[in-house]
Amino acid sequence: MEYSMNNASLIDLKNLTLEELTEFLAGMGKERFRARQIMRWMYGRLAQDFEAMSDLSKELRSQLSQRARISHLVPETVEESQDGTRKYLFRLEDGETVETVRIPMEDHRCTLCISTQVGCAMGCVFCHTGSFGLVRHLAPAEIVNQVCAAMAEAPVNNIVLMGMGEPLHNLDNVVKALQILYTPEGFDFSPRKVTLSTAGLVPEMLELGRRIRVNLAVSLNATTDEVRNRLMPINRRYPLAELMKACREYPLQPRQRITFEYILIRDTNDSEQDARRLVKLLHGIKAKVNLIPYNEHPASPFKAPAEESVSRFQGYLLDRGMVAVRRASKGQDIAAACGQLKGKLTAAQSRQSSVDSSSPEHSSKRGNR
Ligand code: SF4
């Protein structure tokens, strides 16, 4: 089976969309409605085995356990920041690790930031995960199981695919995971509550728009190809003009906007000319800009922007009628940004005690993408 992870003869039902589960059960001669029932158990009630599914006959439960299994994740470590941000590290069945971050919002709601790959191939220079390179894609089950594990602890209101990895580099599995998240009998997330962040894989962005509804965030971080090539190597393949064209073509619902993440780095992308170019770049796009001042740290060549440049930059955008929000970094004291906890473990495992990989490598959770 394509996604079986432990035992090749058992299919992990968490890898299946409702349609696929229905087909799987039809292959066993079972009724269609059983798929909805099982979805409800796996995601609505977070059941981890067939035994718990008390409205299925004993016979069906036993048949299922001979052919299938239900995977789940248990956090290996959980760190909590002073601001309430919680970072979970999950060990996968093959020993790899991913992290997930729960970010409390002002209105007592919470956003869950999930990973889609182990490592990442995009190599953005401001990102710790990028420095590991890509190890592998996550299966749909491994993506949705991050949500299951967090939900087992407390409700989750919004989901952002903004953790480790470039979601569009793992498009098929990500689309499946979104379908599972949206299934009414499962988590029943509204697509309005889910945001996918990309570094700018243009063809996949357009395909995503054709295949499924989801809010789109683009990690922009520069207004010229010269600077963006330096910060984000993907720009050499899909330069700004192509990226902006794809954004203009991305299907949006009424009142929906594309979020542009912009990490402000001193003397790199924080000038008034940058603000002016940004307004031009986003002309005609229903956009919202998240401005994230970079958090400098000793191991990074980049510097935090001066307070006046952040205000000037934001003011310039606001004066031109743009939606521009300054984002506060969350969970800095626990390094709640993609790759940092993994970095810490890797360092510990290789006994490089002199490496302090817990120091903040990123500007913020959002600043990674
Ligand atoms: S910022 Fe995102 S896309 Fe870039 S290297 Fe890091 S995880 Fe990958």
From TrEMBL:
<keyword id="KW-0479">Metal-binding</keyword>
<dbReference type="InterPro" id="IPR007197">
    <property type="entry name" value="rSAM"/>
</dbReference>
<feature type="region of interest" description="Disordered">
    <location>
        <begin position="347"/>
        <end position="369"/>
    </location>
</feature>
<keyword id="KW-0963">Cytoplasm</keyword>
<dbReference type="Pfam" id="PF04055">
    <property type="entry name" value="Radical_SAM"/>
</dbReference>
<dbReference type="GO" id="GO:0019843">
    <property type="term" value="F:rRNA binding"/>
</dbReference>
<feature type="binding site">
    <location>
        <position position="197"/>
    </location>
    <ligand>
        <name>S-adenosyl-L-methionine</name>
    </ligand>
</feature>
<keyword id="KW-0808">Transferase</keyword>
<feature type="binding site">
    <location>
        <position position="127"/>
    </location>
    <ligand>
        <name>[4Fe-4S] cluster</name>
    </ligand>
</feature>
<keyword id="KW-0004">4Fe-4S</keyword>
<feature type="binding site">
    <location>
        <begin position="219"/>
        <end position="221"/>
    </location>
    <ligand>
        <name>S-adenosyl-L-methionine</name>
    </ligand>
</feature>
<keyword id="KW-0489">Methyltransferase</keyword>
<feature type="binding site">
    <location>
        <begin position="165"/>
        <end position="166"/>
    </location>
    <ligand>
        <name>S-adenosyl-L-methionine</name>
    </ligand>
</feature>
<dbReference type="InterPro" id="IPR058240">
    <property type="entry name" value="rSAM_sf"/>
</dbReference>
<feature type="compositionally biased region" description="Low complexity">
    <location>
        <begin position="350"/>
        <end position="361"/>
    </location>
</feature>
<dbReference type="InterPro" id="IPR040072">
    <property type="entry name" value="Methyltransferase_A"/>
</dbReference>
<dbReference type="InterPro" id="IPR013785">
    <property type="entry name" value="Aldolase_TIM"/>
</dbReference>
<keyword id="KW-0819">tRNA processing</keyword>
<dbReference type="GO" id="GO:0002935">
    <property type="term" value="F:tRNA (adenine(37)-C2)-methyltransferase activity"/>
</dbReference>
<comment type="similarity">
    <text>Belongs to the radical SAM superfamily. RlmN family.</text>
</comment>
<dbReference type="Pfam" id="PF21016">
    <property type="entry name" value="RlmN_N"/>
</dbReference>
<dbReference type="GO" id="GO:0070040">
    <property type="term" value="F:rRNA (adenine(2503)-C2-)-methyltransferase activity"/>
</dbReference>
<keyword id="KW-0949">S-adenosyl-L-methionine</keyword>
<dbReference type="GO" id="GO:0046872">
    <property type="term" value="F:metal ion binding"/>
</dbReference>
<keyword id="KW-1015">Disulfide bond</keyword>
<dbReference type="GO" id="GO:0070475">
    <property type="term" value="P:rRNA base methylation"/>
</dbReference>
<dbReference type="GO" id="GO:0000049">
    <property type="term" value="F:tRNA binding"/>
</dbReference>
<dbReference type="GO" id="GO:0030488">
    <property type="term" value="P:tRNA methylation"/>
</dbReference>
<feature type="domain" description="Radical SAM core">
    <location>
        <begin position="106"/>
        <end position="333"/>
    </location>
</feature>
<dbReference type="InterPro" id="IPR048641">
    <property type="entry name" value="RlmN_N"/>
</dbReference>
<dbReference type="InterPro" id="IPR027492">
    <property type="entry name" value="RNA_MTrfase_RlmN"/>
</dbReference>
<dbReference type="GO" id="GO:0005737">
    <property type="term" value="C:cytoplasm"/>
</dbReference>
<comment type="function">
    <text>Specifically methylates position 2 of adenine 2503 in 23S rRNA and position 2 of adenine 37 in tRNAs.</text>
</comment>
<feature type="active site" description="S-methylcysteine intermediate">
    <location>
        <position position="338"/>
    </location>
</feature>
<protein>
    <recommendedName>
        <fullName>Probable dual-specificity RNA methyltransferase RlmN</fullName>
        <ecNumber>2.1.1.192</ecNumber>
    </recommendedName>
</protein>
<keyword id="KW-0408">Iron</keyword>
<dbReference type="InterPro" id="IPR004383">
    <property type="entry name" value="rRNA_lsu_MTrfase_RlmN/Cfr"/>
</dbReference>
<keyword id="KW-0411">Iron-sulfur</keyword>
<feature type="binding site">
    <location>
        <position position="120"/>
    </location>
    <ligand>
        <name>[4Fe-4S] cluster</name>
    </ligand>
</feature>
<feature type="binding site">
    <location>
        <position position="124"/>
    </location>
    <ligand>
        <name>[4Fe-4S] cluster</name>
    </ligand>
</feature>
<feature type="binding site">
    <location>
        <position position="295"/>
    </location>
    <ligand>
        <name>S-adenosyl-L-methionine</name>
    </ligand>
</feature>
<keyword id="KW-0698">rRNA processing</keyword>
